[in-house]
Amino acid sequence: MNGRIKIKSCYKMAVFVMLFYCYNYSLAINIYRSKLAMAVSFLVAVIFAAIPILSVKKFKFDKYTLLWATGFLIALLHNQRLADGDYDPKMLFWFAGIICMLFLKDNEDWIVYFVKSVFIYTIGHIFFCWLFKFMPGFYLNHIIPMFDSTSQVVLYQYFSQGFLTGLTAHYSTIAIYIGNGLVIEYALLLTETVYMKQRNLKIFMFITALTLIMTGKRGMIIFSIITMLIFTLIYRARSLRKAIPAIFKILGVVLTAALLVVVLANTVLPELLSTLNRFIVSDGQDVTSGRVKMWALAIELFLNHPLYGIGWYGYRLQYSVAWEHGSVFQTLDVHNVYLQLLCETGLVGFVIFVSAIMIALYGVIKDLRICLFRKREKMDNNYIRGLAVSCCLQIVFVLYCFTGNPLYDAQTSVIYFFSIAAWLAIRKKMRTIE
User: 333 lies in which domain range?
Assistant: First the structure.
């Protein structure tokens, strides 16, 4: 029993360290103060994740985790930043996330703690979003100055448009936190979680959805809705015909919420008009917000280096050189993970990474449906909830990859790696249940 408690404590510490950085990403420089402190914290997380496995000599690679291990090596050995001598600790965090995933996959004791932690962080960020909205003076005078000068320019712009950013340096970051929280809440709602009463969870989902809309991030708003629709189809019925009523119910809720947003925008929350206007495209306006140029450059770089690509993080350097743009940012990712994998890792890396992503998504859907329709009476409800949460996080990740950088951004990639580890751990447990 004591050994079991110690193992759970090690896993929880690893998850805590990684999530603490994920959900304080924008303030990381102020929190850690030095690159060394940041690097040491990631090493601590890896050690805590590894101790329970290595102590009993149970760690081993299977065919699936070999894909991620191979991807890890590609990103490490064919890396433009490392080649230029830039040892950014944020890159170490990405590597630490993959390593933790490889260790956490062999034990399910940490999953409930992970889900609760993400839920609590979501509550915290929502609280600060609304606190700063109703205390604008405090936000302008004390919060924005905490960030670097480049972020301050962007935050003042977002504030003038009425977007909520909370304790982050970009509206995309807060939208990711809130969007992930929303789909997790929906997974808990359908699986009838014991963490809180269903009525309270529905109320909190409404607050979460409203906060997400107030961030102004179109992509995460759309992808969260699509994720809930897809998950309903997966979770509710053995066949599409049986799932149709549930899907129409969600669409009804979405339409009702949209009407409510319009009413609020014209009454007590006029800032919502800024978000609504982002869905309206004027003649000559680029609906992709400049992404077309980024995608075109990525395709060009891929065609010039089709087999192995230009190297991990290479696109950021090429973009800063190729475009004389008006953005305050010096470097940008492609805002399409699939195109960025093609241009940076070539066909070889693209096949490895995309295979790992799609195998995990297919696997978690398959295992969740097995638990629901074939082994429901044999499975612990916590395992079903874990698979449901993993499924939702993976779906929204795959969708966001079309317009964002979730594989490259620390605040999204590590959450995704943990969702895969949760699926692998529960899958292992399922195999022991006859």
Answer: 2-279+328-430
Asked if residue 146 has pLDDT above 90, the reply is no
Residue 31 has pLDDT above 70, yes or no: no
pLDDT band at residue 1, thresholds of 50, 70 and 90?
very low
In a domain, 268, yes or no: yes
Structure tokens at 78: 């064919």
Between residues 420 and 96, the one the model is more confident about: 420
Answer yes or no: is 11 within a domain.
Answer: yes
Q: What is the rounded CA–CA span in Å between residue 253 and residue 213? A: 15
**CA atoms lying within 13 Å on the CB side of residue 40:** 6
User: What's the DSSP call for residue 325?
Assistant: -
Q: State the residue for tokens 């692998």.
A: 424
As given in the structure block, the two tokens for residue 314 are 């290479």
Confidence at residue 355, expressed as pLDDT on a 0 to 100 scale: 95
Calculate helix-pair angle for 240-265, 198-215, nearest 10 degrees: 60
- pLDDT-wise least confident of 73-77, 90-94, 206-210: 90-94
Region for residue 93 given its phi and psi (left: phi exceeds 0; alpha: psi -120 to 50; beta: otherwise):
alpha
Domain count of the fold of the chain: 1
Contact 97, 417 (CB under 8 A): yes
Here the tokens at position 44 are 């601590």
What's the pTM value of the predicted model, to 2 decimals? 0.89
Task: With respect to residue 308, please indicate whether it lies within any of the assigned structural domains.
Answer: no
The DSSP bridge partners found for residue 79 are 312
Count of Cβ atoms closer than 10 Å to residue 227 Cβ: 27
Distance CA 224, CA 306 (A): 33
Distance (Å, whole) CA 422 – CA 418: 6
Dihedral sign, Cα of residue 192, residue 197, residue 202, residue 205? negative
Contacts of residue 303, defined as CB under 8 A and 6 or more positions apart, other chains included, come to: none
> For residue 316, is it within any domain?
no
